[in-house]
Q: What sequence folds into this?
């Protein structure tokens, strides 16, 4: 297993390095610059700013200097406000992480429960209702659902207050983020549960007189969770990193909204740092997901 972990970590590092290179050179290939604005700056001012932030060096030198800082944990400073990027990430990421983890917890718990109910009551009314809503939530994008929730519950009915940094209310953002993964996990759990219930070991356990509760929770459900874990690992990182549109709609000051602002401002250092940070989260989530297989199914062997 140690050999497998070492191989995966090495592959993760190579993946992050490739992401760094692609992000850096692709961004610099786009016309314009971080100091372009509607009101043109004096050429001398632009030159002084480029010298200050090292943007007048050749691209390979800029890339090497940035990678050296990255290895030591120095993300640099924002080209727009001069703040340390590590401080910006440190204050905004916990908000996104809290929101994403809450949404994923809701999606996984409800998805597994609804999927199991649909499988155990196949072709009955509960199954049809669950399939209908899971299909509906799969088809509705999160930003559309977020907008509808905001209009209905915040503006029209005024049941839930608009987001306030001093008194945050996570109900609507969590619902908007959890709807799609919950629907997907529901369908995935149903398919996996049906497949598990059709296996020979389930029929053998039934023939031995194993109780239905033990049969479902110890045998069928445990083995049906493997595809859910495969989906859950990357999805956790995706929800945390991909909630930028929902964060913008609800004015949540998470890392997603900071990333969108950096793109609009062409803040090179902020874009690169955020991209590498979010990519690292995704890679780590995939690695932990693979290692978690062993805990769920001891029959899995690592090569």
A:
């Amino acid at each position: 297993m140690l050999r497998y972990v070492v191989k995966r970590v090495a592959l993760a590092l190579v993946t992050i390095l490739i992401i760094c290179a692609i992000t850096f050179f692709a961004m610099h290939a786009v016309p314009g610059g971080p100091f372009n604005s509607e009101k043109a700056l004096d050429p001398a001012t632009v030159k002084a700013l480029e010298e200050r932030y090292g943007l007048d060096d050749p691209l390979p030198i800029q890339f090497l200097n940035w990678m050296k800082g990255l290895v030591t944990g120095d993300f640099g400073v924002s080209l727009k406000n001069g703040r340390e990027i590590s401080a910006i990430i440190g204050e905004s990421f916990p908000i996104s992480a809290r929101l994403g983890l809450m949404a994923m917890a809701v999606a996984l718990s409800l998805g597994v429960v609804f999927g199991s109910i649909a499988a155990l009551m196949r072709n009955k009314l509960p199954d049809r209702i669950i399939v209908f809503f899971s299909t509906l939530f799969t088809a509705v994008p999160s930003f559309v659902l977020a907008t509808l929730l905001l209009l209905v519950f915040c503006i029209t009915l005024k049941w839930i207050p608009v987001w306030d940094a001093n008194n945050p209310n996570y109900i609507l953002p969590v619902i908007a983020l959890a709807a799609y993964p919950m629907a997907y996990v529901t369908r995935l759990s149903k398919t996996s549960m049906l497949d598990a219930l059709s296996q020979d070991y389930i029929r053998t356990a039934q023939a031995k007189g194993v109780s239905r509760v033990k049969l479902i929770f110890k045998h069928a459900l445990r083995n049906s969770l493997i595809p859910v874990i495969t989906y859950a690992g990357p999805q956790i990182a995706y929800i945390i990193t991909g909630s930028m549109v929902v964060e913008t709609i609800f004015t949540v000051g998470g890392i997603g909204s900071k990333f969108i602002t950096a793109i609009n401002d062409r803040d090179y250092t902020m874009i690169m740092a955020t991209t590498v940070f979010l990519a690292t989260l995704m890679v780590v989530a995939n690695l932990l997901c693979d290692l978690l297989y062993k805990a769920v199914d001891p029959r899995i062997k690592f090569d």
Observations:
- The CA atoms of residues 222 and 296 lie 7 Å apart.
- The two ends are 7 Å apart (CA to CA).
